[in-house]
Write a structure and sequence with these properties.
- The protein is α/β, with parallel strands linked by helices.
- It folds into 2 domains: 12-259, Dihydrofolate Reductase, subunit A (3-Layer(aba) Sandwich); 286-565, Thymidylate Synthase, Chain A.
- The chain contains 17 helices and 19 strands.
- The chain has helices at 37-48, 63-68, 88-91, 97-103, 116-129, 142-156, 164-172, 174-181, 286-301, 340-351, 357-361, 374-379, 394-400, 419-429, 483-501, 523-530, 549-553; strands at 12-20, 25-27, 56-62, 79-84, 110-113, 133-138, 202-212, 220-221, 231-235, 239-241, 249-259, 303-305, 313-324, 437-439, 455-463, 468-479, 505-519, 539-541, 563-565.
- Strands 1, 3, 4, 5, 6, 7, 9, 10 and 11 form a 9-stranded mixed β-sheet that branches. A 6-stranded mixed β-sheet has the order 12-13-17-16-15-14.
- Helix 7 (164-172) crosses helix 8, helix 9 packs across helix 16 (523-530) and helix 10 (340-351) crosses helix 15 (483-501).
- The longest helix is centred in the C-terminal third of the chain and has 19 residues, at 483-501.
- The structure holds NADP nicotinamide-adenine-dinucleotide phosphate.
Length: 579
Amino acid sequence: MSSSNSETNNMVSLNLIVAIDSKNGIGKDNDIPWHIPNDLKYFKKITTTTSKPFKKNIVIMGRKTWDSIPDKYKPLPDRHNFILTRNEELLNKNKTETETKTKTETETITEYYKSLSKAIKTAFRLKRDNIYIDKIFIIGGQTLYEKIMEIPHIIRDKDTPASNSEEEKYEKSKQQIIKDLYPLKTINEAPENELYKMRKYISDITIYLTEIYKNFKCDTFLPKIDYNLYKLIGASDFYTQQSQSQSSFHYRFKTFRWYNNIFNKDVPQSPTKSISDNIRNVIVNKEEQQYLDIVKKVIETGIRKEDRTGTGTLSLFGVQMKFNLRNKILPLLTTKRVFWKGIVEELLWFLRGDTNNINLQKRGVHIWDGNSSREFLDKLGFTDRKVGDCGPIYGFQFRHCGAKYKTAYDDYTNEGIDQLSNVIDLIKNNPTSRRIIINLWNPQVLDEIVLPSCHCFYQFYVNTNTKELSCSMYQRSGDLGLGVPFNIASASLMTNILANICDLSPGELTHTIGDAHVYLNHVEPLKEQLKRTPLTFPMLKMPEQQLTLQDLNETKLSIKDFKLVGYKSYPTIKMKMAV
Ligand SMILES: NC(=O)c1ccc[n+]([C@@H]2O[C@H](COP(=O)([O-])OP(=O)(O)OC[C@H]3O[C@@H](n4cnc5c(N)ncnc54)[C@H](OP(=O)(O)O)[C@@H]3O)[C@@H](O)[C@H]2O)c1
């Protein structure tokens, strides 16, 4: 699950292990408010596994975390237990340093420390001088996690940069400096803020995170992980915890790592560089990386084209991406926040056959406002059309293709060809057909609509062996910054909905784009996005009961019926829509 870390003789890796709920909660009333046997097993495995059988790991924890462990499990077996406390009585229980050092060879030790820096420094020193010590883990609670996770921020902090002379000195003799700064005699007197100095000796920090997708109303928390610093280097599939007293919930294991490159500033940080020459670039989500690679290629090699909006684009012709939809995974991009509600409500609006933007606005979605305003309609010559009436766009082509369009307010029941109904019928009754197609490109209506269909050709394919439904979607024009992330998720959602109606499982989405372009005013925001390493895609939670075409005709389905589990993303990146 994880790549090797960069620990050397002079620098030490720190590990942090923690389970969090959907609000980053870690505990309640000095206890852990969930019971996940698989997570306890994982904790034990991660914190006891060592590089050599005779070695032991150190676990460092706060006194309250220590108290929260049931007596029968204390001290945590096969690990050296370091406990932080300011309680003099407990601190007096400690052995002398020499005793500690010799004892680690034969048995595990339990010791109390009056500061985190002391505990860590002792752990570092033991590790340096003692072949019986392997990894160092911070196992909670909140204050300890906060302090450790702060370390990379200190490095970036402009107020406390490492001076050049310091760096040079360090380069000359790393080993000597460690000994100068942390001589055995004085190490226990080091003040707490010395922790920040330790950054030089920390090669990397790994966070073993269990993400639990349920809110347990905790009173202690983990700080938010800064994904720009801590890169995702491993992730498990989703697991489900059944519970008798509570409703079942999902969780998954992730591993993040921050590398201290303070003395190695030349190491490239771009996630799109090759993986082999830079261990920082472990790409867990290769599917999202396809998208980022296309964006990068268009920015770097696309030709400059003028466009109908007057903004100007960089463009390449003919690109393709594939997304696995199995196990309920929904490819919603994570390198920026994507507006899931907009995707769901717009697709339901299309599938109902609706072309009136006022109805979409009523559900809090405003993505069609620019293309159906008074000003925009007048510009296109639709002066007698009401605001919000988009003409025979997507929805009309889905459900009434070929019918005569009057206004968005007319009833078109039984008029035109219902492509959605036909496709459902073919998937169910003639699954080997090579004609399971929805074609939204209708040349007859081009002068009646506010925007000719961009995603215009959907073909479906049933794998009759695995009972999976796949979709291949052709998009004639793809606005990579704003539109394409939406289109990937929308086509995936539609495949999930059709699979559900037809009693199949979703298989794969193949997404082909003709003119793949980046608007010139999106270049800078997209370059920012390219620096981000993708996180994992979320899981889609559909209604329990099987859906029918009738459900799609009515207005009762909404965002509430299509929830995402485990959607974590980098923050939103603002990009202006070209109209
Ligand atoms: N979800 C998870 O993975 C996870 C992991 C661990 C813990 N937890 C939960 O987290 C909660 C406990 O966390 P917490 O943040 O309240 O407490 P904590 O960090 O476990 O313990 C706090 C205590 O540790 C000592 N301490 C902390 N920092 C110190 C420092 N710098 N120097 C000296 N002593 C220091 C003090 O002990 P004295 O008061 O004795 O001086 C302090 O009161 C519990 O609910 C526990 O179940 C959850």
